[in-house]
Amino acid sequence: MATISTAFDIATGALDADQAALDIVSNNTANANTPGYTLEMPVWEQNDSVSLNGVNFGMGASLTGAESQRSLVLDQAMQQQTQAGSASTDRLTALDQIEALFSGATSTGTDTSQSSGIGSDLSNLFDSLSSLEGSPADTSVREQVLSAAGTFASDLNQSATQLTSQRTSLDQQGISVVNQANALLGNIAQLNLQIESTSPDTDAGTLEDQRQQDLTNLSQLIGIRTVTTENNGLTVTTTGGALLVSEGQAFSMTTGEVGGEAHFYDSTGDDMTSDLTAGGGELGGILTARDQDIPQTESALDQLAYSVASKVNSQNEAGSDLNGNAGAAIFNLPAGATAANPTGSAAGIAVVMTDPAQIAAAAAGQGSSDSSNATAMAGLGNQAIVSGSTPTQYFSDFVTTLGSLVSEVSSENTAQQAALTQLQNQIGSLSGVNLNDEAAQLETLEQSYEAASKLFTALDQVMVSALNLGVETTYS
Amino acid sequence: MRVNPDYMTGLVGSLDATSSSEATLTEELASGSRVNSLSDDPVAAGENVLLSAQIASDDSFSQTASSTQSMLQVSDSALSTVVSQLTSAISLSIEANNGTMNSSNVQSISNQLAGIRDEVLSMANTTYLGRYVFSGGQGGTTPYTLNTTVSPAVATYQGDSDVQYLETPNGQKVQLNVPGSQIFSAAGSNVLGTLNALVADYATGTPSSTATADTAALSTALGYVSQQRVLIDNSITRLTAAQNYTQSEQTQLTSVQTNLLQADVGQIATQLSTAETQQTALSQVIATMGKQSLFNDL
To answer: What is the pLDDT of residues A8-30, one digit of tens each?
Structure first.
């Protein structure tokens, strides 16, 4: 038979449960702005009913704990999207810097004093040679040829130097990214141990929040894959499969230098630079810019420098200078550079000719007023001497290719960021703390707490009535 | 349905995007150019490189053509002097040949012809900016020297037969000089040689037996000099035409370039105004939303 004290128990249980739920609501509200915090919902459970004389009596409710509102699928998607997003962001940053080196290509006007980059250097060089056709013996026109050649060489040098220094700074960024990632690996291993010992079977709540937050941060840095293991542990590998964290152990990545470039190694000493390049994250973006975009730009400049310098040189060598001597080289190219492998030409190109009289405007053996070799040199500007294009056409194609690449990566980045925002919204709608929800819950819990308290008062009256057996005021 | 309670981040993100688009639009307005970095319009940037190169080359050709034209004009006026000198030489010779003159008059004609020869010689040795214009490729060498110790005197050509050309941006070649050997001492119309012969013909006071033939040869030579002068005149005309063409091409290309890169001010202003409206709206949304919370009503 049901007793009044049972009713008291039920009311007490309700008060306890309400209090616990209020704790959860308070905790949610307090952590509304904590990064990585996952909304916790109280888990209510109906107590087992008691059957007395064939009648079922409910035994109230209790709270079994708080449950984090987490979706591992969304978390995984978030990690991958973060990797892709931050890779394209970092690559775009690097590309923007490369692009800025050639922004002169967008300037207009024929004012030669205004620096409009390698494109106008090229036209100045060939235009000065064509001026030489009209007055081959004029020293000031000859000076102009040398000065145009000098500007062309020094602009190429400058671009090459800036690309090299950008490569160095990307190297340093890469190393610092790996150091940050190593620190996170340690944290994750630590959290793995704690989670395995405290909640091997269920969601680990705040510990799990921290681990997920670390994984998101790690995804920002490098490309990773995660596998959940037994006892709620987590194995982290790079996208290439190199082990980073297993259970409670972190396997730090190391860096080293190969040929003046930073390379990255896994814990067993294998070079995984190319895996990390393809993997994404900041490091992926940095390495893509360093190993793909900058070398492409450099090799285009090298090709241009080598072709123009060697063709102009050999044409000048084919003629006679102002004093009737055989022409000499105008440009100096690095010793190892060849047509097939012009590496280093842009950085190393220099004007060696100092005496404008040495420019061979005349054809071999002709007098100082002859300008047929100058015509031939000026004509190089309209010949397909650089990889099947004229020098200006080649530079124009280079500018278009570079611009398209930047614009492509930029749109890709916009799309990645939009996808990331989408995912953040999905995760937020599941795991975010909505203060209005919490306020509503608070109100509901407050009322149910009040109701349970009222229940006490009422039960108290009932008890008094029972004790006094209907006689008033004897006992109250 | 639950929505992402952290809408503020999204709104602020949109606000950032609007601000950045405002910055881009303002930059376009300020610079007047819609392409401020390669990625704004890669194809236009590439096209601009080609256009700029062509414009620069047109501009440079115009300047080269101007200075070259001065040189051609100097050559032309030298030849014009030669033609008028030769004309008077021919009439002097005809006068001497008609047999009505006494010997001192014939000798005086010989002297006058020597003067004309010297004048023609100095014209053949004309310089422009310190360079001889009629010595072929040897601009530093005096084209003709005269040896008067022998009779008849001998003028020797010391230049070469080199011809120079200026290539126009369209690849046309314009001839810039005629070697002296082709004007003043060409085989069959040797101006200086004939003049020297005539001077010797009349030097004794009696026209020699070759005087008439030499006079006829001088007429032939005159005709030949005029023909050579036409070459120079043609070059001047072609150069002027090429210069006009490049100048008009330059104008045209500049306008193409302007069209290619010029910012459409009206369009940008409209976009800017839209962006501003959007920004204001977003700010108001953020301000309003930020105030609303159920906690306020508890």
So the answer is: 889 999 999 999 999 999 999 99
Q: How many residue pairs bridge chain A and chain B with CB atoms within 8 Å of each other?
A: 220
CA–centroid distance for B211 within its chain: 46
CB-CB under 8 Å, A370 with B162? yes
Chain A residues touching residue B159 (CB < 8 angstroms): 367
In this predicted model, what pLDDT tens digit does every residue of A322-333 receive, in sequence order?
998 999 999 999
> For an interface test with B, which of A33, A101, A322, A396 has the most B Cβ atoms less than 10 Å from its Cβ?
A396
Q: How far apart are CA B45 and CA B36, in angstroms?
A: 9
Of A378, A379, A402, the CB nearest to B38: A402
For residue A261, the surrounding DSSP H or E stretch is: strand A261-265
The whole model's pTM is what? Answer: 0.86
A411 neighbourhood in chain B, CB within 8 Å? none
Residues 6+ apart with CB under 8 A from B229: B76, B79, B80, B83
Which DSSP string corresponds to A32-51? Answer: TT-TT---EEEEEEEPPPEE
> Cα(A448)–Cα(A22) distance, rounded to whole angstroms?
11
- CA angle B237/B229/A128 to nearest 5° reads 50
Peptide bond into A391 cis (omega under 30): no
Residue % of chain A over a pLDDT of 90: 67
Please give the ipTM for the structure prediction.
0.85
